[in-house]
Amino acid sequence: MLSTPSVLARKAHIHGLLGDKAKDAAYLRRRVAAHDRLILHMDIMHRVSQGKARWVKAYRWTGRNVNGEATKRKPKSLGSSEDREAYVRKGLKKQWHDMGLGELGGSMEEAIEIE
Predict the structure, then answer these.
(1) Among 101, 88, 74, 4, residue whose Cα is nearest residue 44
(2) Lower CB count within 10 Å: N or C terminus of the chain?
(3) DSSP assignment letter at 64
(4) Does residue 108 contact residue 102 with C-beta atoms inside 8 Å?
């Protein structure tokens, strides 16, 4: 279970990393949408069952509704596992860059040597 202070602390941390961009509501809405697209491409979903939350493999996006009718065209980036992986890598790299993090989500600053 998540506590309110923990969520607020994480929000403050992310907004601190984003700097002035965090003050722009439109940017934050686009960021949420980008995260949703990344999750879709990772083919995972968050599920809560019997009080336990976990990430599980999602059902593949088929472009059809529950009646089997076509809804809209499938994005090219969802075509193959390689396309999905490339989309996720590119998306994460952009998100990390916006927060001032390195290629693997770590700090871009030099490490501090401790004697």
Answers:
(1) 88
(2) C
(3) B
(4) yes
- From the number of C-beta atoms within 10 Å of its C-beta (0-12, 13-18, 19+), residue 87 rates as buried
In DSSP terms, 57 is beta-bridged to 44
For residue 36, give both structure tokens.
Answer: 């949703």
pTM: 0.70
Token digits for 48?
């809560």
Report the alpha-carbon distance of residue 48 to residue 56 in Å, rounded. 10
Residue from 34, 27, 19, 40 nearest 93 by CA? 34
In contact, 87 and 77? CB cutoff 8 Å = yes
pLDDT digit string, tens, across residues 82-103: 998 999 999 999 998 888 887 7
Helix runs in 19-60, H state only: 25-42
